[in-house]
Design a protein that fits this description.
single chain, 417 residues, alpha/beta, Rossmann fold, six-stranded mixed β-sheet, three-stranded antiparallel β-sheet, 43% helix, globular
């Protein structure tokens, strides 16, 4: 977070192990501690070295690599700078080499003072004045207060400059997919099914006596996440922000991304480009109906016919971002949502209008879709967007019947947060 102090790398390692455990990788506290010790001893010089340190110390099976790669990319991509842990701050370029606006709050090179200047007490030449510390602290407090203000600001009211800051805040949200039982099985001491072949093979070591019974269980796999965002005129301020979230999901956990107004457009390939600006330009060019009308029912039916039956939506967590305004017959929305609820595992509907205290789902499209929605949240700000991320992560492995929860009770209020 801009203006926040850089956390210690061993602390990040402990949090990384906790998130891996939540994602389905059986990381124990001992392995997390071993990872933190390895970081302290090896002093990794880049993220590649950090990646292999974690992979050697935290995972125990080949099928865990996919989940490890996704969580590692989500947590460490762009969040930390290895130079902060190598002590390379003294080797940075002089103040004149970079524009003033590129310096972070609390940068020791601010004001033309080189970091190579000896530091001492106020009685020695070259000592730092106490007012510099006050200025650094004030800058950090100002940056933190800016982040807090943006965290609660509605996306429809942000400026272009604030949108850039919000994009950094969104990149720090830990998007972790829920797990499901896969079809493939592997050896597991807690499994219920006996692996006869491996048990007999192991019995050769004990003279043909099967002293140890080897059991197996299904391998947990992450569920597919599918984002379907409304980019019509009424949702345009929010669509810009949710493209950032969708791109993070595409890069980190292999999510699918779609947008719609009067037609459906798949943006998964466009958002998978590493350069964010180029990715967003390509995404905008691929959707000619940006800021147009809204045909929710027609586009959802097209999604089901062209992608849903092919496996994109089967057993997936569907995240629909829309205010529910429908210019066509709402009955088509009801039919499409009913089919989607039977095909998918969980449906999350994000409606920024829900943040208004007097909101009631009376619009044709929203009223028709709500009976088939499992989780209903607002997602109108960064803080509310964290509710969306938590809703994705909290999806039950067994699942509940679609529409079986009280949608109004799902969205967390500010008092509950």
């Amino acid at each position: 977070m801009p203006g926040s102090p850089v956390p210690e790398l061993p602390q990040i390692a402990a949090s990384f192990g906790h998130l891996l455990h939540a994602a389905g990788v059986p990381v124990t506290p001992e392995r997390s501690a071993r990872f933190a010790i390895a970081i302290t001893l090896a002093e990794p010089q880049n993220l590649t070295q950090l990646y292999w340190l974690g992979r050697v110390n935290l995972i125990t099976a080949h099928d865990q690599i996919d989940v490890y790669d996704r969580v590692f990319a989500q947590i460490f991509r762009g969040i930390i700078d290895m130079a902060d842990f190598r002590g390379d701050s003294a080797n940075q370029a002089p103040p004149t080499a970079a524009p003033t606006g590129d310096r972070k709050p609390g940068d020791p090179n601010r004001g033309g003072e080189s970091d190579n200047t000896p530091r001492g007490t106020s009685a020695t030449p070259g000592a730092r004045d106490d007012s510099d510390d006050d200025t650094d602290e004030a800058s950090m407090i100002a940056a933190m207060s800016t982040d807090e203000r943006l965290a609660n600001k509605d996306f429809s009211a942000v400026t272009e400059e604030e949108l850039l800051l919000i994009r950094r805040l969104i990149e720090q949200l830990p998007l972790v997919p829920p797990m499901r039982k896969g079809r493939r099985q592997r050896a597991n001491f807690a499994g219920r099914r006996l692996d006869i072949r491996k048990t007999l093979r192991r019995s050769h070591r004990t003279g043909g006596d099967p002293v140890k019974l080897i059991k197996r269980a299904r391998v947990p796999r992450p569920r597919r996440i599918v984002f379907i965002a409304d980019i019509s005129g009424s949702m345009e301020p929010y669509a810009r922000v949710y493209l950032h979230l969708a791109r993070g999901g595409v890069l980190a956990i292999g999510a699918e991304a779609f947008v719609f107004a009067t037609r459906l457009t798949r943006l998964t390939r466009a958002l998978s480009i590493n350069d964010p600006d180029f990715a967003y330009r390509k995404a905008a060019a691929a959707a000619p109906d940006w800021s147009g009308g809204t045909r929710i029912g027609e586009t959802l039916m097209r999604f089901l016919n062209e992608y849903g039956r092919r496996g994109v939506a089967r057993g997936a967590v569907i995240v629909i971002i829309s205010d529910g305004w429908e210019i066509e017959d709402p009955a088509l929305v009801r039919i499409a949502m009913e089919r989607l609820s039977r095909l998918s595992h969980h449906i999350i509907w994000v409606n920024p209008r829900k943040a208004v205290a007097s909101f009631e789902p009376l619009t044709g499209g929203m009223a028709a879709a709500l009976p088939y929605v499992d989780t209903f949240v607002s997602g109108h700000s960064v803080r509310a967007l964290a509710d969306v991320v938590r809703a994705i992560r909290a999806v039950s492995g067994n699942g509940l019947p679609h529409g079986g929860q009280n949608s109004r009770a799902i969205g967390l209020t500010h008092a509950q947060r």
